[in-house]
Amino acid sequence: MTTTTLAVLVPLLPFLGAVTGLLLGRTAPGLVRPLAVLPPLASLVIAVIVAVRQGGDQAVSAATELTPTGSVPIELALYIDGFAALVAVLVGVVATCVQIYSTGYLRDDPRYPSYAALVSLFTSAMLLVVYSGDLIVLLVGWEVMGICSYFLVGHYWETPEARAASIKAFLVTKLGDVPFLIGLFALATDAGSFRVTTVLGTVASGGLHHPTLIALLLLAGVAGKSAQFPLHTWLPDAMAGPTPVSALIHAATMVAAGVYFIARLLPVFQASSAAMTVLAVMAAVTMAGSALAALAQDDIKRVLAYSTIGQLGYMTGALAVGDRGAAVFHLLAHGAFKALLFLAAGVIIHASGTNSLAVMSRMKDLRARVPDAYWTMTVALLALAAIPPFSGFFSKEAVLGAAEHVATGHTEHAPGAAGWIVLVAGLITAVLTAAYATRLWLLAFRGHGTEAPDHGRQPVTMTAVLWVLAVPSLAFGLLYGQLPDWFDGRDLTPVLTTSVLGTGLALVGGLVTYGAWRQTTALAARVPLGAVAAHPDADAGEVEAEAIAAHAPAFGDVAYAADPADPGRLLLGPLHRHAAVGFHLDAVYTVLFVRPVQAGASLVRFLDREVVDTYVRAAGALPRWLGAAVRRAQTGNVQTYVSALLAGTVVLVVAALLVATGA
């Protein structure tokens, strides 16, 4: 088969698997698991073949007109360069691992058939985005992912958290999609085509008339889909869905789509210095703010969710300094270790029976109950913290090195201010990332208290996948010497200055967190848990003093009390309570948007019921009253009718005489 034919099969096979799974899920339950695993696995194999054939050389491009439009044509087009080939392989690897993992994780779930079909459809939509060479076809995959995320995040629809999270994810991403669609139309109007190659050619020739406006409109959609400030608030709440869904969304689909889109159309954004600066500021705020929030979260999945937001900030930061090679390199490395982190977290939750790090920290020997998750998550957290030689070190240093080159004027792909913004924010985030990664590891695996529950060994389909993903988390970064051909010739070798500085800051963040944990652990041994539960927002020292002074513990909800051994409270101090709720951004949105919309809806309801309905009711009541009056006159008595007729005649005669006399 030709490369083009094989490329068409890559998104098509998961789509066919999804349709077949939805049709046969109830009538042939024995086919559900094969239909869930085999199509993405076959798609992965074909994506690898396409990548090998493409080899980082000339892009594979083909197109056929989809339908005549009378103006700007819409084409079913492929455009597979080195970036697309590698990202498709990542999507295939993560989707296959998620489907295999889900066969064990959701083995007793009655809604597994529809879940598996939606995951396959999700995978197909992302692969369509990756391979598409036409922006409208890309938009189709973009929107299908949003629909799939709504259903998958709301998988446990019986719980109010899942229902609210699914609606929030859908609405916030759609909020960004509206300007995104307008930006696509404006871009196609200037270029005269939706084809990616034509658009890039128009930008190169200076034919883009409104680059800043178009770039900012597109950036709004990217901010929603890739969970960047200020449209990132949906992603932590989306953790109400099944853990494998979280792994898929965070590692290879949905949030990766926005970063990939900017990388594909980076010249459009580079045509506007203002847009690149806005992108840099957005990345910096996203990086630092999400890292602080991650340090204050108690739910293990929310820690990882804010971590994803921060790592996506690194990717958009690399794009803000004009280096799409570094951005996609970090996208690939992050995809492997973030999928591993979520799937390992699923094993831990499955074994401990809780998402709460505070509860896990009171379980002794939890790491002995889940040895596979313990070792593989340790590898993934080291990669997340960018400790050499793990993959995250090489990809993160590529981002910081690119920012340094722009900041110091060695390259002119972006404004120098953007370089400094990304570099400073990236170094600050490196400290915070190592801090919350260390905190998560200590609270989950170094707990003290009662024995962790023993639920037996986890299914092999869940644990085997962890070791598969541990390999790229450990070794992928070492391939940086072989990757330049795939990344436009970009040298991905770590820069000495940022490598030493970034690694040093990461080590400082980890060691400081460890020291804080030792201090808070010693304090926790002297503080009754009931006292902590009764004063969840108080400083640990104040709780200890009050408990000692009273000579007795106060009572409260001990199981979900704030953990006095949590180093995040000590490190963040007064900032902790604000970081724990995402710096109240949801509350701000409630005041600025939700309440005005609700007030407007209440006004419309009032006008509809009290004004419009009043006229409608009156229009119906008036004929009814007239009919009642006429009905009363119909007595059936002939004498009454004759009397009325005579009276009417007399009235008419009198009226005629008066008119005649007056005339």
UniProtKB/TrEMBL annotation:
The NADH:quinone oxidoreductase/Mrp antiporter transmembrane domain, residue ranges: 132-403
Membrane topology type: Multi-pass membrane protein
Ranges in a coiled coil: none
Domain NADH-Ubiquinone oxidoreductase (complex I) chain 5 N-terminal: start-end pairs: 68-115
InterPro entries hit by this protein: NADHpl_OxRdtase_5_subgr, ND/Mrp_TM, NU5C-like, Proton_antipo_N
Known EC number: 1.6.5.-
Keywords: Membrane, Oxidoreductase, Transmembrane, Transmembrane helix
Main subcellular location of this protein, as a coarse class: membrane
Gene Ontology molecular-function annotations: NADH dehydrogenase (ubiquinone) activity; NADH dehydrogenase activity
GO biological process: one example: ATP synthesis coupled electron transport
Gene3D superfamilies: 1.20.5.2700
Subcellular location: Endomembrane system; Membrane
UniProt entry tagged with the keyword Cell wall biogenesis/degradation: no
Gene Ontology cellular component terms for the protein in this record: endomembrane system; membrane
Spans traversing the lipid bilayer: 6-24, 36-56, 76-100, 112-130, 136-157, 169-188, 208-224, 245-263, 275-296, 303-321, 327-352, 373-394, 417-443, 464-483, 495-517, 641-660
Family matches, as PANTHER family: NADH-UBIQUINONE OXIDOREDUCTASE CHAIN 5
Protein name: NADH-quinone oxidoreductase subunit L
The species this protein was found in: Streptomyces fagopyri
Organism ancestry: Bacteria, Bacillati, Actinomycetota, Actinomycetes, Kitasatosporales
